[in-house]
Design goal:
binds beta-D-glucopyranuronic acid; Beta-glucuronidase; single chain; 642 residues; alpha+beta; six-stranded antiparallel beta sheet
Length: 642
């Protein structure tokens, strides 16, 4: 039985990998689906039928072609909300901890005019699913995608038009198995000792500290475009005096020589600049720059770039309106500049994580978190440890919250995860990430990994290639990865633009001894800057608190201990930010769920807010500090915490 399970899991990942090349699901751009006079969007969020494949080889769904008819006809199904992780929806530990294929389906009517209009493309898009997905429409396979956190889509018009009088059925199978070559990596361990484990027993090992939530995490959408359509837009912005400069490139699909008309409108809908041609430069007089929150009285200013390809007179014209912020980013040996002003990151690390829905996109939570960020006086966050929903980045653009955009390169600890197959996949993921997020003004830096074993010999070549490839994809943003290796033995650090370093003095090292923080932190900064001459961000620091636990003098896990850890770090930040420290990001914004283990009491408790977003004492310490920092470092100096 164990052999069968092993074979089946490996075989599926392998089969899936082979087909992916042939399907090439990611050939085009990845513009966020927006409605316009030429585009309609149908959101398929809601209840889907769901079934986990509990068969010993996790293989029954493929053996019995569960995609060929309704899932409910294959056996018992349950209601499953989309978007949401499936893990915490029921009372079954078996489903919470499930590894293998889960199956979703739902039926819907596609608007008749979409089907009858041959001039329309109908695109099916999945915002993200963890981790390997195969999608069928009416039993026909339309796409596969490897990796969570990023969208994938396919034109399904032809399949839908075969059966215009029937409701259409969408089936999605998702496999959350992690291997040494996936991102994040993991490994399946088979427990073959029959005196210790039941037959076929296996576990998923992971090297990251958040619960391995799975399922369809972001909305599934159907949307239309005309056949001649805007496939991608890329903008690069700068300014000189009061003139904003937007260099744009538009790729139009479905026509060999499309003329393109581009209009930039300001917030009030007034035309700020126009241009023709699929690439060009727009100049905006009296430009309103995009500024971070608390750096300017009017942060997050967005223009709208309206792009219209000119199709033949008889054909409909596409229109896509892209929000554009005009800003620059620059890094020196000691400073991080936004719009030529020194920028100091006073922010947080987050997770996409909440009760019941796990990693599913949840608007009330998103809005609450932005309100808390503003309450806190935070101007930035890192998308630890994977790309967040596009809807969250759009909020960052609008509110001026600065983002370090991290790919799911977390837990790369095994030497076998530094091989060619892993690197090739990592490069693809960076491409998908840059393709998706390149136009967000809030995104100021890419992070290619979190805490890899960057002292292992293959790490030098791996990070050299990964970082140079990322810079080639986007020459306009700095690139980093987040290290907790020894500064002297870190083989990736020579290639980054900004050093991001995590440390947990008085927690994992010298537990209980907060008095060692100042000396150790000072040494840390001096070592890293001395060796690499780069600006440094303290990309994680913190301490677990079980909310409501108190002790004086402070003890680990109490509110007082978190306070005193923070205060000791802050003393050193205040010295070193005058030199080359350009940011501090607390670990973590909120408590979050993790795998079970002896170090975790129902999850990681390093949040300054509980998982339900109630402040611990540390939140007030940070709030006081962040507003003070804003008054000192923002160029607009009359903020008060409200
Ligand atoms: C850091 C990791 C982060 C963990 C944190 C912790 O980057 O994902 O959650 O430690 O242990 O090393 O709390």
């Amino acid at each position: 039985m164990a052999v069968c399970a092993k074979w089946a899991l490996a075989a599926f990942l392998c089969a899936a990998a082979t087909v992916r090349g042939a399907w090439g699901a990611l050939s085009g751009g990845m513009l966020y689906p927006r409605e316009s006079p030429s585009r309609e969007v149908k959101d398929l969020s809601g209840l889907w039928s769901f079934r986990a494949d509990f068969s010993p080889g996790r293989n029954a769904g493929f053996e019995k072609s569960w995609f060929s008819g309704r899932l409910s006809e294959t056996g018992p199904v349950i209601d499953m909300p989309v978007p949401a992780s499936f893990n915490d929806i029921t009372q079954e530990a078996q489903l919470r901890d499930f590894i293998g294929w889960v199956w979703y389906d739902r039926e819907l009517w596609v608007p008749g005019r979409w089907l009858s209009d041959e001039g329309l493309r109908i695109v099916l898009r999945v915002g993200s699913a963890h981790y390997y997905s195969i999608v069928w429409v009416n039993g026909a396979k339309v796409m596969e995608h490897e990796g969570g956190h990023l969208p994938f889509e396919a034109d399904v018009g032809n399949v839908l038009r075969k059966n215009p009088s029937q409701p259409c059925r969408i089936t999605i199978a998702v496999n959350n198995t992690l291997t040494l070559q996936t991102l994040p990596p993991g490994s399946i361990q088979h427990m073959d000792d029959p005196t210790m484990y039941p037959p076929g027993y296996f576990v998923q090992n992971i090297n990251f500290d958040f619960f391995n939530y799975a399922g369809i995490h972001r909305p599934v959408l159907l949307y239309t475009t005309p056949n001649v359509y805007i496939d991608d837009i890329a903008v690069q912005t700068s300014f000189a005096d009061n003139i904003g400069i937007i260099v744009y490139q538009v790729s139009v699909a479905g026509s060999s020589e499309p003329a393109v008309q581009v209009t930039l409108t300001d917030k009030d809908g007034r035309c700020a600049a126009t241009s023709g041609g699929s690439s060009g430069t727009l100049r905006v007089t009296d430009v309103n720059l995009w500024w971070p929150y608390l750096m300017h009285e009017n942060p997050g200013y967005l223009y709208s770039l309206e792009v219209r390809p000119q199709a033949a007179a008889s054909r409909p014209t596409d229109l896509y309106a892209l929000p554009v912020g005009v800003r620059t980013v620059r890094v020196t040996d000691t400073r991080f500049f936004i719009n030529n002003k020194p920028f100091y990151f006073h922010g947080v690390n987050k997770h996409e994580d909440y009760d019941i829905r796990g990693k599913g996109l949840d608007w009330p939570l998103v809005v609450k978190d932005f309100n808390l960020l503003k309450w806190l006086g935070a101007n930035s966050f890192r998308t630890s440890h994977y790309p967040y929903a596009e809807e969250i980045l759009q909020m960052c653009d609008r509110h001026g919250i600065v983002v370090i955009d991290e790919c799911p390169g977390v837990g790369i600890k095994d030497i076998r995860s530094f091989g060619n197959a892993s690197l090739a996949h990592h490069l693809v993921v960076m491409e998908e990430l840059v393709r998706r997020d390149k136009n967000h003004p809030s995104v100021v830096m890419w992070s290619v990994a979190n805490e890899p074993a960057s002292e292992m010999p293959p790490a030098g070549r791996y990070f050299k290639e990964l970082i140079s490839h990322t810079k080639a994809l986007d020459p306009h943003r700095p690139v980093t990865f987040v290290s907790n290796s020894n500064f002297n033995r870190d083989l990736g650090a020579p290639y980054v633009d900004v050093i991001c370093v995590n440390s947990y003095f008085s927690w994992y090292r010298d537990p209980g001894h907060v008095e060692v923080i100042p000396i150790q932190l000072k040494t840390q900064f001096e070592n890293w800057h001395g060796k690499y001459q780069r600006p440094i961000i303290q990309s994680e620091y913190g301490a677990d608190v079980v909310s409501g636990l108190h002790s004086d003098p402070p003890m680990m896990f109490t509110e007082e201990y978190q306070e005193v850890v923070l205060q000791n770090y802050h003393k050193v930040f205040d010295q070193k930010r005058k030199e080359y420290v350009v940011g501090e990001l607390i670990w973590n914004f909120a408590d979050f769920m993790t795998a079970q283990g002896t170090l975790r009491v129902v999850g990681n408790k390093k949040g300054i807010f509980t998982r339900q977003r109630q402040p611990k004492s540390g939140a007030f310490i940070l709030r006081d500090r962040y507003w003070r920092l804003a008054n000192e470092t923002g160029s607009f100096q009359c903020f008060v915490a409200t």
